[in-house]
Amino acid sequence: MLEVEGIERIKNHILAETDRSVRTIEEETRQFVEKEALDSEEQSRRILSAAIERSEQDAGLLVKRAESLADAERRKRGLASKQKIVDEVIARALGKLSAQPEETRAARYAGLIHALNIEEGVITLSGDEQTSVGGALLAALPAGRFSIAEEAGNFSGGLIVKHGRVQDNLTYDLIIRDHRPELARLVLDIVENPGASE
Questions:
Q1: In degrees rounded to 5, what are phi and psi of residue 142?
Q2: Stretch 61-70: mean pLDDT, rounded?
Q3: Rounded alpha-carbon distances, angstroms, from residue 110 to 3, 50, 102, 161
Q4: How many angstroms separate the CA atoms of 155 and 130, rounded?
Q5: Model pTM above 0.85
Q6: DSSP, residue by residue, 144-172
Q7: Which of 101, 127, 158, 184 could disulfide-link 171, Cβ–Cβ 3.0 to 4.6 Å?
Q8: How many C-alpha atoms does 39 have within 13 Å on its Cβ side?
Q9: What was the pLDDT predicted at 19?
Q10: In what order do the strands lie in the sheet with 121-125?
């Protein structure tokens, strides 16, 4: 019987030890799981915080880029609008020059020829002016020294004078092309500062 009691005691001792070990393992596991959960939660918060910060920076950059593009588009439209105004003013000025009386245009062209000291040559006029201004222009120049070219020029106004091997292009198209920056500046100064031109 004693032997049975000794075995029973050993068995109870083993069971008690096993029970304590299980509880210790369970406690350690619970603590480990809690620590891992807290660590995971903290890591998730850090990742989320970093992601939010990065997305806010990205959003800020996108906003700045959009504002920059909008500014560039505004400037582009402003320049296009100014360019349109310049084109309209130049076109109107050309229209007024072309609408002046034939004698006035002929005198202007003769003045250009005299200013360049051209003594003789063949004058090319635009299609509209060849017949209307040609006669008056020849009358304003030394007799027999100039002639009007048979073929009209493809330009809006002004003239081309060929004398010897030289050809002087005095067309409005070339004058406007060569002086466009100055003309644009003049037009924009008048448009932007209307009182300053008075």
A1: -55, 135
A2: 86
A3: 147, 80, 12, 11
A4: 11
A5: no
A6: TTEEE-SSPBSSSSEEEEEETTEEEEEEH
A7: 158
A8: 6
A9: 77
A10: 146-148, 121-125, 158-163, 166-171
- In the chain the first and final C-alpha atoms are separated, in Å, by 134
Helix axes 2-99, 172-192, angle to 10 degrees: 120
The closest alpha carbon to 123, from 136, 111, 138, belongs to 138
Of 178, 90, 174, the residue nearest 126 (C-alpha): 174
Coil/strand/helix, residue 124:
strand
pLDDT single digits (tens) 70-118: 888 888 888 888 889 888 888 888 889 888 999 999 999 999 999 999 9
Is 159:136 a contact under the CB 8 Å cutoff?
A: no
Burial of 144 by CB count in 10 Å (0-12 exposed, 13-18 middle, 19+ buried)? exposed
Tokens of 132: 């209307």
